[in-house]
Design brief:
The structure is a homodimer of 219-residue chains. The first copy, chain A, has 219 residues and is mainly β. Chain A is built from two helices and 16 strands. In chain A, strand 15 and strand 16 form a beta hairpin. The interface between A and B is large, with 72 and 72 residues.
């Protein structure tokens, strides 16, 4: 039922085109497809990026002493941008694979960012794994929501958002956001989030972030 | 892997909250979840609507002689609107269950509509079933794309869009669209689409729409 088989897509596409050729109206085969089981995007024009531990130095200032290789993958992103960045009213679609792991006692997580345009919302929805969405208002108030397979999260355009993998397998989640949302990573790189997600005695705990991160207020 | 169990969501939520109570920072359990297997939305504030054959009279002018009951369900929609309709930058998320069936030789389909704001795009992505997305530009040029499990379709804000179920099971697809896209159903109700999707001798065929639908140009 819930599956994507690109060979099947092509085969069915071919068959349907042959079938309709006699009627002079063809059915086009879409170029982009989702693999719901694995959380992958397939097709042309899919962009990909990887974030390694060394790319997250400001998130994990002590990563050098963690014993992890600097080239350890923390997460990867695949996205489709049929609208150009900055275009009003367009939408982008992507998927993130956030690996399980910790730097010391702090779980693997995404950089996190604000949208440059604060009216622009976003959806996150998880397909596998287990984790936490950290949300933060400008000013530092931070809170946490669970992400489990099927969770659908609406992210207000004013909220910084960061995902943390608290499980033992990759946390995979789809995202859909406006092509003119823009990205403000700099504020997070400077101030961090108001909460950290740590493993302590085998439990997942949330603790106020270290003071040097200059968060001005924490609930 | 790809599953949503609302009981599990609640149980995990409870456990995590208890676990974090000692640390005075709780993890919230999101109120909305997706059942990827069945294509359902669960949670609070989910809206629902059903379209019966009698609601689609302008789409199927001859439905009374089809032998189908006027109360036959053609499709249903579930959607979540965390942003208010008309709000700039917000996003809505929904799922459509389009039943298999025909009125005479014409397959079951959605009303179809233009967005009132023509810069506002939309994504459709199918999880089960089989069908066709009809797209039409103002002026009438119409074309068809396949929808199979995993298909991800980007709908330009200028294109009218209608989905047709050409299979034997419900065609289920997710949608994500801007909360200020708006809906222009009236143009389609008046002019129709440039193509009809029919079953002829057991095959799925596309034919130019009947002339009385006033479509001005067809590719």
């Amino acid at each position: 039922m819930i599956s994507c088989d690109s060979k099947q897509l092509r085969r069915e596409g071919l068959r349907t085109e042959l079938m309709t050729a006699r009627n002079q109206v063809s059915i086009e085969t879409p170029v982009t497809a989702i693999d719901w089981r694995l959380g992958n995007l397939e097709g042309t024009n899919i962009r990909r990026s990887r974030k390694l531990l060394k790319d997250l130095a400001e998130v994990y200032p002590n990563h050098a002493s963690s014993g992890l290789a600097p080239d350890t993958e923390v997460y990867s992103v695949q996205w489709w941008a049929p609208a150009r960045e900055g275009q009003e009213g367009g939408l982008l679609w992507g998927v993130t694979h956030l690996q399980p792991g910790r730097v010391g006692d702090e779980f693997f997580m995404t950089h996190g960012h604000y949208h440059a345009v604060e009216t622009r919302a976003e959806y996150y929805t998880a397909v596998s794994g287990k984790g936490i969405l950290l949300r933060m208002e400008r000013g530092g108030r931070t809170w946490a929501e669970e992400m489990l397979p099927g969770t659908l999260l609406y992210i207000d355009g004013r909220h910084a958002h960061r995902v943390v993998n608290t499980g033992d397998e990759p946390l995979v989640f789809w995202a859909c956001w406006p092509s003119d949302a823009g990205y403000d990573y700099a504020t997070i790189a400077r101030d961090g989030f108001g909460l950290q997600v740590l493993q302590r005695s085998g439990e997942t705990v949330l603790v106020p972030a270290a003071k040097e991160q200059n968060v001005t207020s924490i609930d």
